[in-house]
Amino acid sequence: MLEPLFKGIPNVRFLGLKKKQSSWRIYKALKAVGADTVADLHVVNRVGRALFLLRMDALLRFDFGLKVYRLKKGRFSRMMMLRHWRKEPRRPQWKRYNDVFGRFLEDGATVQGAELYEAKEGCVGVAPFSQHEGKVWPWENVERLVRMLCEAGYKVLLFGSKEEAGQLEELAVSVEGAESVAGRLTFSEELECMKSLSLMVSMDSANMHFASAVGTPVVSIWGATHPDFGFYGYGQERGNALCADLPCQPCSAYGQKACRYSDYRCMRAITPEMVMERIRTLI
Q1: CB–CB of 32/54 below 8 Å?
Q2: What is the distance, to the nearest Å, from the Cα of residue 27 to the centroid of all Cα atoms in its chain?
Q3: Which of 27, 131, 232, 270 is least buried, going by the fewest C-beta atoms within 10 A?
Q4: Structural domains counted in the chain
Q5: Domain span at residue 69?
Q6: pTM of the entire structure?
Q7: List of residues 6+ apart from 145 with CB closer than 8 A
Q8: Which residues contact 184 (CB under 8 A, 6 or more apart)?
Q9: pLDDT per residue as tens digits for the range 223-261
Q10: Is the CB of residue 101 less than 8 Å from the CB of residue 72?
């Protein structure tokens, strides 16, 4: 699915692996392409085992040239934030990725920083859903923002999955100037559509990262999670990640925990007017 993200990058070959691919199969895939340098940006056990096998294979062939560079995830600092023992923001995750690639410099590689396109006029994307409830804006706020954008003269494109398409289509029908593309486009077409936007409004979700990957400015809305974890979009400004900073935030690293107050007040605290104000500073 993610192959279109790497389209057009020189000297890059995409190898698709299944989500639960075994360490043995990952090792075989790396060996098949003759990998002699590996950047591990995942840092999970099955990838670690695959890299161990790759190292052992190289050593048995008296090949001592294999290099592996691994991401420093900063799990301890994230745990400190969850327990509210740390207040200062963590280093953004996308900069941690750049750190890994930056270590290639000694071998002559170069790292290019994130480049956002200039905001284009006329079309705003809205991606109102996320995997967990703690990261989903109240629907009445979504409706209000879409109406405000359309009344301000913007065309609004609604993004979501096939399962969310029905609800988004109902909203598009009820608001003149809004259109839903949920479930209608291939992933490659969706990326091209995001690339043409003036701006994307999203939750802490995959759509935030997809829009960031094609260089589109993103205003993101945060609840159970927190932008100071560093997981906002690649190259995005921290100030465009809107968070109420309530005493109970953050309560979860991924947003999967139920709200202790049962009302997700952190998401309700971000109003459509606040989002609209931020949008006006960008386009």
Answers
A1: no
A2: 27
A3: 131
A4: 2
A5: 22-103
A6: 0.84
A7: 126, 201, 272, 275, 276
A8: 165
A9: 999 999 889 999 899 999 999 999 999 998 888 889 999
A10: no
